[in-house]
Specification:
The structure holds 2 protein chains of 2 kinds. Chain A is globular and about 25 Å long. By secondary structure, chain A is of the alpha+beta class. Chain A contains 3 helices and 3 strands. In chain B, the strands form 3 sheets. Chain B has a 5-stranded parallel sheet with strand order 5-2-1-6-7, with helices on both faces. In chain B, strands 3-4 form a two-stranded antiparallel sheet. In chain B, strands 8-9 form a two-stranded parallel ribbon. In chain B, β1 (3-8), α1 (12-28) and β2 form a beta-alpha-beta unit. The longest helix of chain B has 25 residues, at 195-219. The chains are: A alpha+beta, B alpha/beta.
Protein backbone atom coordinates (compact mmCIF):
# COMPACT_ATOMS: atom_id res chain seq x y z
CA UNK A 1 0.00 0.00 0.00
CA UNK A 2 1.34 3.41 -0.91
CA UNK A 3 0.25 6.94 -0.09
CA UNK A 4 0.91 10.00 -2.22
CA UNK A 5 0.36 13.75 -1.91
CA UNK A 6 -0.23 15.54 -5.20
CA UNK A 7 -0.40 19.28 -5.78
CA UNK A 8 -2.78 20.84 -8.27
CA UNK A 9 -6.43 20.90 -9.16
CA UNK A 10 -7.87 17.75 -7.53
CA UNK A 11 -9.81 16.47 -10.57
CA UNK A 12 -6.94 16.98 -13.00
CA UNK A 13 -4.29 15.66 -10.64
CA UNK A 14 -6.24 12.50 -9.77
CA UNK A 15 -7.25 11.79 -13.36
CA UNK A 16 -3.68 12.15 -14.62
CA UNK A 17 -2.22 10.15 -11.75
CA UNK A 18 -4.68 7.25 -11.99
CA UNK A 19 -3.71 6.37 -15.58
CA UNK A 20 -6.77 4.31 -16.38
CA UNK A 21 -6.83 2.28 -13.15
CA UNK A 22 -9.89 2.13 -10.90
CA UNK A 23 -10.28 5.47 -9.12
CA UNK A 24 -12.40 5.54 -5.94
CA UNK A 25 -13.76 8.79 -4.51
CA UNK A 26 -15.96 9.72 -1.57
CA UNK A 27 -19.30 11.04 -2.73
CA UNK A 28 -19.99 13.63 -0.06
CA UNK A 29 -21.69 16.10 -2.37
CA UNK A 30 -23.75 13.32 -3.96
CA UNK A 31 -24.71 11.92 -0.57
CA UNK A 32 -26.15 15.28 0.42
CA UNK A 33 -28.30 15.34 -2.69
CA UNK A 34 -26.12 17.94 -4.40
CA UNK A 35 -25.14 15.70 -7.28
CA UNK A 36 -21.52 14.88 -8.02
CA UNK A 37 -18.98 17.31 -6.66
CA UNK A 38 -16.59 19.18 -8.90
CA UNK A 39 -13.83 16.61 -8.50
CA UNK A 40 -16.09 13.59 -8.94
CA UNK A 41 -17.68 15.03 -12.02
CA UNK A 42 -14.37 16.02 -13.60
CA UNK A 43 -12.91 12.58 -12.96
CA UNK A 44 -15.99 10.78 -14.30
CA UNK A 45 -15.84 12.89 -17.45
CA UNK A 46 -12.11 12.70 -18.11
CA UNK A 47 -10.72 9.51 -16.54
CA UNK A 48 -9.59 6.80 -18.94
CA UNK A 49 -10.65 4.08 -16.51
CA UNK A 50 -13.62 3.40 -14.22
CA UNK A 51 -14.46 5.92 -11.50
CA UNK A 52 -16.30 4.76 -8.38
CA UNK A 53 -18.16 7.26 -6.23
CA UNK A 54 -18.90 5.91 -2.76
CA UNK A 55 -21.76 7.87 -1.28
CA UNK A 56 -22.20 6.10 2.02
CA UNK A 57 -21.64 3.03 4.15
CA UNK A 58 -24.18 1.01 2.15
CA UNK A 59 -21.87 -1.80 1.11
CA UNK B 1 -24.28 -12.19 -1.28
CA UNK B 2 -23.82 -8.65 -2.53
CA UNK B 3 -25.45 -7.46 -5.73
CA UNK B 4 -23.86 -5.61 -8.65
CA UNK B 5 -26.46 -3.85 -10.79
CA UNK B 6 -25.50 -2.80 -14.30
CA UNK B 7 -27.56 -0.70 -16.69
CA UNK B 8 -27.31 -1.64 -20.36
CA UNK B 9 -28.56 -0.37 -23.69
CA UNK B 10 -27.22 -0.83 -27.23
CA UNK B 11 -24.23 1.51 -26.76
CA UNK B 12 -20.56 0.64 -26.62
CA UNK B 13 -20.37 2.36 -23.25
CA UNK B 14 -22.85 -0.06 -21.73
CA UNK B 15 -20.86 -3.00 -23.15
CA UNK B 16 -17.83 -1.68 -21.26
CA UNK B 17 -19.97 -1.31 -18.13
CA UNK B 18 -21.28 -4.87 -18.43
CA UNK B 19 -17.77 -6.21 -18.95
CA UNK B 20 -16.53 -4.37 -15.85
CA UNK B 21 -19.52 -5.49 -13.78
CA UNK B 22 -19.07 -9.16 -14.73
CA UNK B 23 -15.38 -8.97 -13.92
CA UNK B 24 -16.09 -7.30 -10.59
CA UNK B 25 -18.85 -9.73 -9.62
CA UNK B 26 -16.56 -12.66 -10.46
CA UNK B 27 -13.73 -11.28 -8.33
CA UNK B 28 -15.86 -10.26 -5.36
CA UNK B 29 -18.24 -13.22 -5.36
CA UNK B 30 -21.27 -11.01 -5.96
CA UNK B 31 -24.36 -11.77 -8.01
CA UNK B 32 -25.16 -9.56 -10.96
CA UNK B 33 -28.37 -8.01 -12.25
CA UNK B 34 -28.46 -6.64 -15.79
CA UNK B 35 -31.13 -3.98 -16.17
CA UNK B 36 -32.47 -2.92 -19.54
CA UNK B 37 -34.91 0.00 -19.51
CA UNK B 38 -37.04 0.91 -22.49
CA UNK B 39 -39.82 3.36 -23.14
CA UNK B 40 -42.84 2.87 -25.40
CA UNK B 41 -43.19 5.28 -28.32
CA UNK B 42 -45.05 8.57 -27.80
CA UNK B 43 -47.96 9.52 -30.07
CA UNK B 44 -49.36 13.02 -29.93
CA UNK B 45 -47.80 13.62 -26.55
CA UNK B 46 -49.20 10.39 -25.04
CA UNK B 47 -47.02 7.31 -24.52
CA UNK B 48 -48.36 4.05 -25.91
CA UNK B 49 -49.35 1.50 -23.27
CA UNK B 50 -46.34 -0.71 -22.43
CA UNK B 51 -48.44 -3.88 -22.54
CA UNK B 52 -49.56 -3.06 -26.07
CA UNK B 53 -46.00 -2.62 -27.31
CA UNK B 54 -43.69 -4.77 -25.22
CA UNK B 55 -39.95 -4.29 -25.18
CA UNK B 56 -38.07 -4.16 -28.49
CA UNK B 57 -37.24 -7.77 -29.43
CA UNK B 58 -34.02 -6.89 -31.22
CA UNK B 59 -32.68 -4.99 -28.21
CA UNK B 60 -33.53 -7.87 -25.86
CA UNK B 61 -31.81 -10.38 -28.11
CA UNK B 62 -28.68 -8.24 -28.33
CA UNK B 63 -28.72 -7.72 -24.55
CA UNK B 64 -28.90 -11.46 -23.84
CA UNK B 65 -26.27 -12.19 -26.51
CA UNK B 66 -23.93 -9.59 -25.02
CA UNK B 67 -24.22 -11.14 -21.55
CA UNK B 68 -23.55 -14.63 -22.93
CA UNK B 69 -20.61 -13.48 -25.02
CA UNK B 70 -18.98 -11.58 -22.16
CA UNK B 71 -19.41 -14.49 -19.76
CA UNK B 72 -17.71 -16.70 -22.34
CA UNK B 73 -14.88 -14.20 -22.90
CA UNK B 74 -14.40 -13.90 -19.14
CA UNK B 75 -13.70 -17.63 -19.06
CA UNK B 76 -17.11 -18.81 -17.85
CA UNK B 77 -17.85 -21.57 -20.32
CA UNK B 78 -20.93 -22.73 -18.47
CA UNK B 79 -23.48 -20.89 -16.31
CA UNK B 80 -22.36 -23.00 -13.33
CA UNK B 81 -19.01 -21.26 -12.87
CA UNK B 82 -20.28 -17.76 -13.66
CA UNK B 83 -21.66 -15.33 -11.08
CA UNK B 84 -25.44 -15.67 -10.61
CA UNK B 85 -26.91 -13.39 -13.24
CA UNK B 86 -30.44 -12.09 -13.80
CA UNK B 87 -31.73 -9.84 -16.57
CA UNK B 88 -34.48 -7.36 -15.70
CA UNK B 89 -36.53 -5.48 -18.28
CA UNK B 90 -38.24 -2.31 -17.10
CA UNK B 91 -40.61 -0.01 -18.96
CA UNK B 92 -39.33 3.31 -17.66
CA UNK B 93 -36.68 5.91 -18.32
CA UNK B 94 -33.19 4.50 -17.82
CA UNK B 95 -32.25 7.04 -15.14
CA UNK B 96 -35.40 6.46 -13.07
CA UNK B 97 -35.28 2.67 -13.43
CA UNK B 98 -31.63 2.54 -12.35
CA UNK B 99 -32.19 4.87 -9.43
CA UNK B 100 -35.05 2.71 -8.12
CA UNK B 101 -33.29 -0.60 -8.73
CA UNK B 102 -30.08 0.64 -7.13
CA UNK B 103 -31.86 0.76 -3.77
CA UNK B 104 -31.47 -3.04 -3.58
CA UNK B 105 -27.94 -3.13 -5.03
CA UNK B 106 -24.56 -2.69 -3.40
CA UNK B 107 -22.86 -1.39 -6.52
CA UNK B 108 -24.43 0.33 -9.54
CA UNK B 109 -22.41 0.28 -12.77
CA UNK B 110 -23.19 2.46 -15.77
CA UNK B 111 -21.33 3.25 -18.96
CA UNK B 112 -20.27 6.80 -19.61
CA UNK B 113 -21.35 8.05 -22.98
CA UNK B 114 -20.53 11.75 -23.23
CA UNK B 115 -23.37 14.11 -24.02
CA UNK B 116 -21.17 15.72 -26.68
CA UNK B 117 -19.24 12.89 -28.29
CA UNK B 118 -16.88 15.15 -30.26
CA UNK B 119 -15.59 16.83 -27.09
CA UNK B 120 -15.52 14.59 -24.05
CA UNK B 121 -16.42 17.19 -21.47
CA UNK B 122 -19.93 16.35 -20.27
CA UNK B 123 -21.32 13.26 -18.61
CA UNK B 124 -24.24 11.53 -20.28
CA UNK B 125 -27.64 12.17 -18.73
CA UNK B 126 -28.06 8.68 -17.24
CA UNK B 127 -24.62 8.65 -15.60
CA UNK B 128 -25.22 12.10 -14.21
CA UNK B 129 -28.64 11.11 -12.83
CA UNK B 130 -27.12 8.05 -11.13
CA UNK B 131 -24.51 10.26 -9.47
CA UNK B 132 -27.17 12.70 -8.34
CA UNK B 133 -29.16 10.11 -6.40
CA UNK B 134 -26.72 7.42 -5.27
CA UNK B 135 -27.73 4.73 -2.79
CA UNK B 136 -24.30 3.17 -2.36
CA UNK B 137 -21.41 2.85 -4.77
CA UNK B 138 -21.80 4.17 -8.32
CA UNK B 139 -19.17 3.13 -10.87
CA UNK B 140 -18.91 5.10 -14.11
CA UNK B 141 -17.13 3.16 -16.87
CA UNK B 142 -15.90 5.10 -19.90
CA UNK B 143 -16.77 3.73 -23.32
CA UNK B 144 -13.17 2.94 -24.21
CA UNK B 145 -12.11 1.68 -20.79
CA UNK B 146 -9.87 -1.36 -20.93
CA UNK B 147 -9.98 -3.78 -18.05
CA UNK B 148 -6.72 -3.85 -16.19
CA UNK B 149 -5.27 -7.18 -15.23
CA UNK B 150 -4.98 -8.41 -11.66
CA UNK B 151 -1.76 -6.50 -11.06
CA UNK B 152 -3.32 -3.09 -11.61
CA UNK B 153 -3.68 -0.43 -8.93
CA UNK B 154 -6.76 0.79 -7.14
CA UNK B 155 -6.41 4.50 -6.37
CA UNK B 156 -8.48 6.11 -3.60
CA UNK B 157 -8.72 9.89 -3.54
CA UNK B 158 -8.92 11.28 0.01
CA UNK B 159 -9.97 14.65 1.34
CA UNK B 160 -11.02 15.95 4.73
CA UNK B 161 -14.71 15.11 4.37
CA UNK B 162 -16.11 12.18 6.32
CA UNK B 163 -17.14 10.22 3.21
CA UNK B 164 -13.57 9.40 2.18
CA UNK B 165 -13.59 6.82 4.97
CA UNK B 166 -16.28 4.82 3.18
CA UNK B 167 -14.33 5.23 -0.06
CA UNK B 168 -11.15 3.88 1.53
CA UNK B 169 -12.94 0.85 2.97
CA UNK B 170 -14.50 0.00 -0.39
CA UNK B 171 -11.25 0.63 -2.28
CA UNK B 172 -9.34 -1.63 0.13
CA UNK B 173 -11.89 -4.42 -0.32
CA UNK B 174 -11.80 -4.02 -4.13
CA UNK B 175 -7.99 -4.03 -4.21
CA UNK B 176 -7.96 -7.13 -2.05
CA UNK B 177 -10.49 -8.92 -4.27
CA UNK B 178 -8.48 -8.01 -7.38
CA UNK B 179 -5.09 -8.80 -5.93
CA UNK B 180 -4.19 -5.23 -6.80
CA UNK B 181 -2.08 -2.67 -5.00
CA UNK B 182 -3.90 0.07 -3.14
CA UNK B 183 -2.72 3.66 -3.44
CA UNK B 184 -4.15 6.40 -1.24
CA UNK B 185 -3.87 9.87 -2.74
CA UNK B 186 -4.50 13.28 -1.20
CA UNK B 187 -4.40 16.39 -3.37
CA UNK B 188 -3.31 19.81 -2.19
CA UNK B 189 -5.54 22.25 -4.05
CA UNK B 190 -3.87 24.69 -6.38
CA UNK B 191 -4.75 27.69 -4.20
CA UNK B 192 -2.45 26.33 -1.49
CA UNK B 193 0.59 26.72 -3.68
CA UNK B 194 2.08 29.55 -1.64
CA UNK B 195 4.78 28.32 0.72
CA UNK B 196 2.91 28.74 4.02
CA UNK B 197 -0.29 27.16 2.69
CA UNK B 198 1.66 24.34 1.11
CA UNK B 199 3.34 23.25 4.35
CA UNK B 200 0.09 23.51 6.34
CA UNK B 201 -1.85 21.66 3.64
CA UNK B 202 0.81 19.00 3.35
CA UNK B 203 0.70 18.33 7.07
CA UNK B 204 -3.11 17.99 6.94
CA UNK B 205 -2.92 15.71 3.89
CA UNK B 206 -0.37 13.49 5.58
CA UNK B 207 -2.64 13.19 8.61
CA UNK B 208 -5.54 12.17 6.38
CA UNK B 209 -3.34 9.64 4.58
CA UNK B 210 -2.14 8.12 7.84
CA UNK B 211 -5.73 7.71 8.97
CA UNK B 212 -6.58 6.30 5.53
CA UNK B 213 -3.88 3.64 5.78
CA UNK B 214 -5.16 2.66 9.23
CA UNK B 215 -8.74 2.33 7.99
CA UNK B 216 -7.72 0.47 4.83
CA UNK B 217 -5.81 -2.09 6.89
CA UNK B 218 -8.81 -2.44 9.21
CA UNK B 219 -11.12 -3.06 6.22
CA UNK B 220 -8.77 -5.43 4.41
CA UNK B 221 -5.75 -6.53 6.50
CA UNK B 222 -4.17 -8.21 3.49
CA UNK B 223 -4.03 -4.90 1.55
CA UNK B 224 -0.72 -4.37 -0.17
Amino acid sequence: MTSTVLVGRPGEALTRHTEGNLLVLGGHAAARGHGPGTTGRYCAEHARGPVAVVAGPHF
Amino acid sequence: MSLVLVGVDESGASQSALEWALDDATRTGASIEVLYAWQPPVYGGYPAHPLAWGPPEEALRSCAAAVRSMLFRAGHESPDDAPPCTVTIVADSAARALERASERADVLVVGERPAWPMVRVALGSVALACLRHPHGVVVIVPERARLKDGAARVVAGLDEDEHWQHAVRWAAQEASARGAGLELVAVLPAHQWDLAGLSLGQAASERVLEEGVRRALAAAPESR
